[in-house]
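Marked as duplicate of an earlier ticket. Keeping the data here for the record.
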Amino acid sequence: MTPREALAYGRPALVWRRQVADTETPVAAALKLIEPGRGDFLLESVEGGETRGRHSLIGLAPDLLFRAHGQRAEINRHWATDRETFEPCDVPTLDALRALVAECRADVPAELPARSPASSAISAMRRSAWSRLCRNRRSIRSACPT
């Protein structure tokens, strides 16, 4: 199924573009694309000053927003049209995040290698996000992956 077909059926899809970064940095691209207040973001996989194998993801116009405050989490599934409508999650933060990740899982197209920059960056960012969450929340450390 192509990304266009998946999106037409309301399913998540990966849309990508490979670009040699000789003339465009992720920050420069983000500055050109990101619109303030829309929820856009830039994620980079670089850790510890590495210079090779860097990958970046730019997210534009998200259709939902997940936010957490300790063990309380909430989701706005209408972010594009209503920035105020957050619904509380009925489970603790990590469980809510895991459920949302499973719900939003997208098939990786055959043209995009399994260990592509996008999948590597997503994996690195997921590890980094879990690490920060676990470091900042002692009470949930036991639920965090190692």
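See parent ticket for discussion. Helices lie at 3-8, 26-33, 93-104, 117-136.
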